[in-house]
From TrEMBL:
Required for the export of mRNAs containing poly(A) tails from the nucleus into the cytoplasm. May be involved in the terminal step of the mRNA transport through the nuclear pore complex (NPC). Residues 1-31 are annotated as: Disordered. Residues 1-22 have a biased composition (Low complexity). This is GLE1 RNA export mediator. It comes from Macrostomum lignano.
Amino acid sequence: AVPAPSAAVPAPSAAVPAQSAPGANNSTDSGWRWRKCREKLATLRAQLTDLINGATPELMTFKMAIQTTLQNRLAQFCASDEPQLMRQRQQQTMLLLLKIFSMEPFVSFYQQRKISSIRSVPNGEQFAMYTYCECLLMQAEDQFSEPAKLRPDEEGADHLFCLRIAQSLAMATAMLCSCSKAFQPMLLSFLLAECPLLLPHPPPPDWEAGRELDDRVMRCRSLGRLYAALFCAPPLMGSFSRPKEFSLNHMWSLAAGLVRLSATGRHSHLLTCATLHSVLEVAGASMWRRYGAQFVKLLRSALKLYDQESYFIDSSAVLLVQYLQFVLAAGFITDLGATSSASQLMSSA
């Protein structure tokens, strides 16, 4: 059985989709939450499509400015593993994002012109948030899909950089959630619609339609890392606190829920293993510190489940088994160490 976290640890917020108490049948609730997320995202897309179809030249200019600027800034945010240059670029990016989301005028990459604030453009805030989510997901799939390693600090600098950047970008995104109450539900709707396993919930048939298996694995891997980082990365700036819904308790619920979901055999273990592995890579060290022996029991439960011949046809399951064997033997999960650079982010130029 999957162990439950200590009763002394507060339960995850109801505002965040999460598994209920271990052993409870949560499939109906998860299905409802997934449908609500997907309906919300479909409604947003329809609203924005209608707005664009009848958009004024001012709104179209604003949309292009937001999209081009965010794409360029997020690409720069993740472009260098040289610490000083990375801090400079991240600082510039964060200052720009704060300007956009605090309704101030900003200079865009689009035609290098000054754009009026969101407040002065009809539906500007909604466009900005929606575009940021789109750019964030594209950046995640491009930047955070490095194959998993047993020890990222010893087996590949590119992989370690990938995980640290996921944390840094998640910190920035969590900060923006603090700036706008409307942004957080939109962000979660995007992530959960693109990867329903993060509920955790079996992906519906149409989620897999038209997608190669490798693409689905890559999406689970990249979004799993980004999603986990949202719940464990420290706040980027002292004046902004992490939204209370982004609790590490939800990562426990997610990890335990994925193990229980695998035990039902209702979907591809390849996708579940890729998602669980990504969550453990990013949030595992924090969960180990928080839950101690109970987290070790969860890892052993997962290893017992996946270390079976029937799972060995899935490459992601083999990688996960090797990872679980390694961390249980080592007695720790590598801490990404992203906090040291993040704490200096706004003080270093």
